[in-house]
Structure prediction request, 478 residues.
Amino acid sequence: MLIPKKHAFARRTFLRGAAYGSGVAVALPLLEAMLNSTGEALAQGGPLPKRFISWMFGSGFNLDQFEPAATGTGWALSPSLAQLSDLKSYLNVCSGLQNPNNPVLNPGAPQTITHHNGLTVFSGYQYVDRRSSIDKTFATDWGGPTIDQVIADAIGKTATLPFRSLQFGVSKSDSPVDGGTAADVLSVRRLAAGSSTSLIPLPCERNPAKVWETLFGAPPVPNAVRTSMLDFIKSELGTMRGRLGTQDRARVDAHLEGIRSIERRIQSAGVCTAPAQPTEQNGEENPNEKLTVINKIMADLAALAFACDLTRVASVRFSGVAAEVNIAELGAPDNGTTHHFWSHATGSGYDNGIAFTLNRFGDWMRSLRDTSDPTGGNLLDSTILYCSSEIAWGPIHQIARHPVLLGGRGRNYLTFPGTHFQGAPAPANRHGGDSTPSGNSTSNVLFTVLKNYDSAATAAGGGLTAGSTLIPEIKAGP
Prediction:
């Protein structure tokens, strides 16, 4: 609809107030008043936002439990994905992929360093061996920028945002024997084109209260005071609401209630004693981490950041390389040891841990799905989530048949309802070791996703591990 100029707002509008001598700024979601007359672009120019999230967990998949039996659009949820039934239409499953850093299938790839080889799935580059210079049994650095940072570069060509990207973490239980940037972070940025020495690692933040402060500038109230930052913007809020139409007023009200809801949950989760100076760093320690609670708060914070157009790119390191985390919420006996241990043992612990973790990925999709996008639909409609692990199957550190799970639509870019793309037919034993043929490359999935954000891209990654072939089965159009 045509929006009168007197009701037009800039794309990023903040309500401002003051508290305890410090400024408070609350960002607004994207409103109709910020769009052009057709609703197909921003009022001040530029394409409608497309968002991206990379999401990693450690110690891989049980391929027999993960890969759906049928391919194409008629696939059914596998046991590992059973808890994502409410999200199935938004899921594209890519299985039977060749990880190009596999030295058996690609003789130019380096020798296997357990949980490090497969990380190519997030970048399309070979790693840099650092075992001689870092006091860890296994140590590598990223060999090139990760996909989230390549996409952030592409988005930055047409949009200037307060935050180029955000890095979220959930579990604090890192491997004691794995090191280097490839083990320590999920995001690395290249500052100079063509330079291999200008990669900047971007650590994740695992304390929701600190993410909150970064995004929304929580006021430095005394520790004894539990207040809402929304109390300090009431005057400006009243003035601004009078300039909005009925639908935009409802969006603002829902947005502010979402902010207040997260404030309450941060406080009730015991993450901080006051918004400004939390005393706890992400709740309990291993083996009692509050993974579901922390993960959901982080997901909702990311959804708010997307809705406010504070950023359009995020990465999530749910669990690190090797997944040295006890998943307390599984209960006995599965919570009695680490997920990494279960990946090398028999019993239900490995399968139950994978299903639990993939459902936490689902929580990120749900937060986006449940947040409205004023251009139509919800944030999941305008986002692509890219989920995988550093290995395909835990017991032998296999990276053959490496899966990738894609969530969202990316503004009608991905197939919807989702499909199951299989790079190579499934053998009788999917755990056939690194000599198993794996068909299409994980880097081709990276390239297919990248093209949605950079139509001029010719490859994802570099060298022997680069991908340059689109996978039409997971694209909604040509």
